């Protein structure tokens, strides 16, 4: 299953060229895992934190969310 890119994550990626470059290069499965990781938080505060961390990790070259059980939708 592929998740749609939520507007808040799309905006964050657009503002971070390094993260966007990695995003454009990763597989659809990896994108789905990032999206699921961001959206699986229960609170809006958690989602904001995950977007910031995700952008930072993508910008540094990380291609998949680390230390997470993975998307349950696979």
Radius of gyration from the CA trace? 11 Å
What is the first-to-last residue Cα distance?
Answer: 6 Å
Largest sheet: none
List low-pLDDT spans. none
Strand percentage:
under 5%
Tell me the overall shape.
Answer: globular
Helix content: 55-70%
Mean pLDDT over the full residue set: 90
**Backbone structural class:** mainly alpha
Count of beta strands: 0
The number of helical runs is 4
Q: Give me the strand/helix succession.
A: HHHH
How does this model look, in words?
- Helices cover 61% and strands 0% of the residues.
- By secondary structure, it is mainly alpha-helical.
- Helix 2 packs across helix 4 and helix 3 runs antiparallel to helix 4.
- The protein starts with 6 loop residues before the first helix and ends in a 15-residue tail after the last helix.
- The mean pLDDT is 90.
């Amino acid at each position: 299953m592929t998740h749609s890119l939520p507007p808040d994550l799309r905006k964050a990626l657009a503002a971070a060229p390094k993260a966007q470059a990695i995003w454009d290069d990763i597989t659809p499965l990896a994108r789905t895992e990032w999206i699921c990781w961001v959206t699986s938080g229960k609170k809006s505060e958690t989602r904001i934190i995950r977007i910031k961390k995700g952008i930072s990790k993508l910008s540094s070259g990380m291609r998949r969310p680390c230390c997470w059980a993975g998307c349950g939708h696979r």
